[in-house]
Amino acid sequence: MQISEVKQVNDEIVEAFNRLIPQLSTTNLPPTREELEEIVAAGTSHLLIARDDTGRIVGGLTVVIFRIPTGLRTRIEDVVVESSARGQGIGEALSRAGIEMARSLGADSVDLTSHPSRIAANRLYQRLGFTIRHTNVYRYIFPTHGATS
Known about the structure:
The chain is α+β, with helices and mostly antiparallel strands. The chain has four helices and four strands.
């Protein structure tokens, strides 16, 4: 297995995320080529991919880093491993690479979230040293354009 950062978006990257994102979320569409290019060019987000021994992309995650008045914040987002490749250490390798990237970018810590129903993922994150933070996570959803209340 090989973990690398995407530096340039090509058809293979687009196809991989078209295949992977539906395995992560049933409510979000896969990113377009333009959106992937925006992620790669942003400088505040780093897209990592995992390839199996045949070279096929079987996983990915994004490391997001940004400065706020209270310090440098780093998050790991959208960790996904292809269902047929789970249980082979790919999620762990991706997560370790994300943690190391955050460290190399100057972060003191890394945050991530995982739905409680993702039992194996939650076990992995705790094994890697992540601890549960007792905080409320809030989300504001913007009403659709033109919708009435």
